[in-house]
Task: structure prediction
Amino acid sequence: MVAIKLLHLKPNSLLPFTIISIKRSSSFLPKPSILSLFCSTQTQTKTQTFSYGPSLHKGKIAPETPFQTQNPITHQPDVGEDNNPLFDEQKFTRVFHLAALRVPANDCFALENRLRGHLLNWPRVKNIARVPGDEIEEEMMTLFDKRKDGEESNEEENEEFESLVLYREKLAKEFNYRGFVKFKNLAKISRPGKRKKKEKKGDGERKVNERKECCLVEVLEEEEEDEMKGLLGEEFKGGRKWKGSTRLLLLDERYGDKGFEELPQAIKAVFVEETIDNRSSTIELVRCKLTLFYDYWQMNEILETMLPEGMIIPSAFETVGHIAHLNLKDEHLPYKNVIAKVVLDKNKPKIQTVVNKIDVIQNDYRTMQLEVLAGNHSLVTTVVENGLRFCVDLAKVYWNSRLATERLRLLSGFNRNDVICDVFSGVGPIAVSTAKIVKRVYANDLNPFAVEYLERNSVLNKLEKKIKVFNMDGRRFINAMFSSEKAHSITHVVMNLPNDAAEFLDAFRGVYRNQPRDKEFNFPMIHVYGFSKARDPEFDFHERIRIALQEAAVNVDMRRVRLVAPGKYMLCASFILPKSVAFAECTLNV
Result:
């Protein structure tokens, strides 16, 4: 018979595992019912719930030590604006107790491939660990090598071959896994070892750029831990001392507190095979302690524990050379120094300065007001883009690394016969890059500091002969270029000033008004950038172009560059200058 007892539950409550009791007779119910399958499935799901991988919410917190916030370079504690320590790095140290297999060094890689699914497999932690004392002593190694070499030489002297054919066949069978014949010193001659560094650091010396250890593996001695005695059982107890190099294979964290009988069959099979082959197992199960330090954890994991719950983690930032450029929201400002220190620590040595933009761009020079939050206070850096180097001072000029892909797309449309006119060139990310491809570049910018860096970058990349630099207003520059003899050679005009570029298009009205209409002209292709917050950004930007040109029929190729802010797009419009606009009556006094 089947006896089922159900309790009255609330509508949204889960079904407990103990409210169903089934008594089944094998003769009456030969197959399990649907209800019993449901119960077993729920039970298995509950028992198998396990959070895998390292986490700051797991493990044990390491004991506190003095001078925990001390900087290893300056030997001074990292402090904030109020001269108080920002945070204690020692609080992010976690200790995990694991089980490991101590195996001979020669067999560690083979066993790693065999037991891959039962090993630790944590990111940035190797499954094969080395601990102090796992290598054989040098004196024993030299004696072992001498004995081995003597045995091989005696074998070679005693062996005699009737013919060269048999000798060649024997050599063909003696190639080892590295491809060397077992001749004495042949491997050393073919592959000389790396030269050892003569300079040795003292105990107290440390390089500035040296990376600190992010994890440490320590073996717990059996004499100190009573729980380790008899872990393998009576069958695998040895009390044996190792006579060769060994390694540790870190097992999965689920096996950290289990004995030998509770291990998977794949691991037990390794012990059994070793015992059968060598009469005594050369593999032993040990307990070890894995310590993960502050340098191990990722930036998001550190900030998640330090910022209030529910706050968005500011993990994205723009990189300009060695400078990390943050755009922190108002909710992040009380924690700006902590965020900057974590960003700096987790991105060294590439990032050496962390800054935050404190206001929007409002001046004509497009310079940003930046606040240095951590690291070096110098804002002069060198940026590498498209194989070229650019010197940039973020305090005086404008630079946006997020437009590198758009600049590369723009360059793909130029050829060696083109002549480019860059109206708002800045420090020259488009002008200098274009000079490698095209015939001639005319670059202009209103900011005198940007012009200075533009000339410096053109010389730095050995392209100064193909770039002519101007320092004037955009409208004056357009009127000066198209009223000169250079007007007929210009094939492309780039206007990368998204906030105001569309307003400068009126300068193209009447640029050819003094030229004869019967003459053939190659009207330039204009590439103008702009922002739009409209529901239909392409239509909105197209209307602004038509209004600026005072031309109703303008065939424009529109493209969205990127999403600058929620609901705000940056667009690029490319069109050939209409003939009616070029020969129109000028309504602008420059």
About this structure: The chain has a mean pLDDT of 77.
